């Protein structure tokens, strides 16, 4: 076949690649999408199964997915196997790089918490002097957040908190359960806002690019989707200095192929995107590529029992969840740490977690029966700081199964995260005590970097070409026909799950690109 | 096919084809059917001649593709067989068996960890696990035994319930998420407890007990099969396979 030059090539089919495909094709622009993984087939690859029929009785294949705490024996096949696509980190700087390679990327598997950033994040340097501000502000994204929330069908409640901007929600009007109301009241005493969670409902139980974004692009007849295409390199036209396409490898046969493109959107997921730019030796005139890696701390928390809900009396007392948006370092400064943490609150009327109960045998059975339906727990989502030294480099000595260089990830947390966690545990414990809960576990230990699967930065956004990789439109400073739409462009992490902001940025960047293409500027 | 049959077949096909052209009639089926003439079937012919060469063969392939798997109920091997043990030393294994007896005895309708084959399963599982996890178990079992010998001058495997409780209970701690206690022996006791519970609750014996008690099937989850595995290991990629032929090689 004669080779043709495609209008827009999108690398990656997750939330931001999907959003770019939807927006551009709906404007009549033909897009070709490459994904490194296979097409998913839910009917073929998934089935309900009891753990007694799994080879390892639910313990998981020994030694498999050592860096993926989210992996279980039920889902261990959905993650990227690090033996197939290795990565490395210094021995004292553990990093959990959690990856998925299949069409839709990680979008079928995300936690669906859906928050807007505020100017406390976009203008974070103005508040505390650390890092850089984003070259955009909250008002720039409002119209896009509105549309993204409608697509994802976000539930939530209107709170009128400046650090927690309201949106186009399916309003959550459910009353608090008794225990949750007590915790809300305890929060008021401590100056801590306890709000309803905000979550994407999606459609039919899924809130992925696969069902919310890509079908709209397919409907236009303008999308060509090619799975199993592992991009090796973005190629450059020596005459113009612009990107002119990619070379990629077929996942099954390892056949190498070339594709020419007028515009390239890189949406491979933060670190995959940066790895590809590094392997292509492009877009790093700033020296910022690969640096300022950040994410959020998870894993620290408390587990409690609500005494009145025990022994079969949980009805009306327990149930529901809450979100505590960042409340520190807003108008005052907290000793010991910069930025904010949010808290996921869960109040369950289901089975009690036996790990929280230091008993065994018949005594444990008795406790589990009594405590059933009385569970209350909190988990942290804390912003970490994107230091310059938190960085990735290309490792050409260790290659993956397709002969590609791998990534070395060197990042570490500091006392900022430790102090933040201590403040969080102590505050939650005080609130739980005031609410009358029995505290069973207080865990000050948070997970290693990467665990939250919210890696951000390494190709950050800046109006200054000397400080960032992309401009305020997600367009690379070095090549006007290369755009990056995933969270690698984030300047700071915030406490928020990044997906809704990623999608809003991708929507905005895609509309800007369409207009620039119409004008002939790209 | 013997050579004379092959030649005979060719001769029949050739003669038939010639006659058919002359008479303008469909040719009768040859012993060796004529290759498919259209482009689509020629593609299949190139891959698998036996499947592509005749309409009947193509029909067979289509029929096979539509065939639905017969419903033949299958059982787990644990229904009829036991797991061989071969990893832990006899002393450690005896300690593990007793730990299972102590931590998870039988309850009203459900089997004990020992009845559910937990010790054998953990012997198998730890034998296949990374060295770090093996060390945690080996050291932990040794420590349990040593503590029991020190306090009661009896091996843990022969400790009564009160003695066993005395060496286990001080190390039980509540924990959450992915953060078992840090101190090594406390970590072992709590992780071993979790593992013993997990492999007991997810055993065939437990599932059968639930079934017998009229309870719903325990531990059901959404299992993902391997997704279109793309790794092949028998072809070397990425470098030229053939050494370029030089002029000297021909001379």
Automatic annotation (TrEMBL), chain A:
Pfam families: GMC_oxred_C (PF05199), GMC_oxred_N (PF00732). InterPro entries: FAD/NAD-bd_sf, GMC_OxRdtase_N, GMC_OxRtase_C, P2Ox-like. Its cofactor is FAD. Residues 33-296 form the Glucose-methanol-choline oxidoreductase N-terminal domain. Keywords: FAD, Flavoprotein, Oxidoreductase. It comes from the Bacteria. Residues 389-506 form the Glucose-methanol-choline oxidoreductase C-terminal domain. This is Choline dehydrogenase-like flavoprotein. One of its GO terms (molecular function) is flavin adenine dinucleotide binding. Belongs to the GMC oxidoreductase family.
UniProtKB/TrEMBL annotation, chain B:
Residues 20-40 have a biased composition (Low complexity). This is Tat (Twin-arginine translocation) pathway signal sequence. InterPro entries: Gluconate_2DH_su3, TAT_signal_bac_arc. Residues 20-41 are annotated as: Disordered. It comes from the Bacteria. It comes from Terriglobus roseus (strain DSM 18391 / NRRL B-41598 / KBS 63). Transmembrane segments: none annotated. Pfam families: Gluconate_2-dh3.
